[in-house]
Give the backbone structure.
Amino acid sequence: MFEEAQYFAPVETGADGSVVVQLASSHPGFADEVYRARRNAIAALALGYHEGDPIPHADYTDEEHQVWALVTRELAVKHRTYAIQEFLDAAERLDLPKDRIPQLEEVSELLRPLTGFRYLPAAGLVPLREFYGVLANGLFHSTQYIRHHSVPFYTPEPDVIHEVIGHGNTLASPRFAALYRLAGQAARRVESDEALEFVSKVFWFTMEFGVMRDRGELRAYGAGILSSYGEIEEFRGMDIRPLDLRAMGVQPYDITKYQDVLFAAESFDQLEDLVGDFWATCDDDMVFKIMA
Ligand SMILES: [Fe+2]
């Protein structure tokens, strides 16, 4: 199984319908019963969701809103140095709330006039084919919980800060939104699990952890880097390799650590020409030829 599965805490539904998020004992919220009850409640919202409904409202505590405000403030400073211009411009247009966690429905409404992307709530791991496939329709699966307030700059799993500050700001860019849609079309077109994994790895090393020459420096556009307070300071020191489909599609990675191999696009045009065209046209045969 593709390693991304380990990224998410498993969610179990009991015979009585109760929903339990199985946090690992190393999770910062493991011993906090109040936090765990909230995690269970938020996961239950997503499991009970039907497409087409408004996204259910998630309740957050004042402490959690403060985590959002703090991380938003600190990341905005780092984005000025480390994010590509396309991301900065998109973030300015989206204009997310700075003092409180926005509801996913609200972020969808902000995105609607910009690129038409909408969020879908996810309790935890969404199967690859489903996660990537719906991108073709302008839909993005997102977790709704936030990291534990004891460690505002750390999360072992993707939370609403990653999904909204990382992906939401990116999805406010028409150029990025077009690439996400193409990735979705590619995921729908390929039939074998191997080709799907290749497509998803290319996504991982671009839309999640991509870096690019921009304004004379190496800067980030991947949502995973741009939503990570620590990683954003480190990426320039990693093993930076040229953008290359085969290299990205077969490169192993460890989701529990900072990504130590990154692929740099020379420009946005190059990203669109190489990766966008690949997603727009790839099928199983093409993927296997590239892998051979
Ligand atoms: Fe992500």
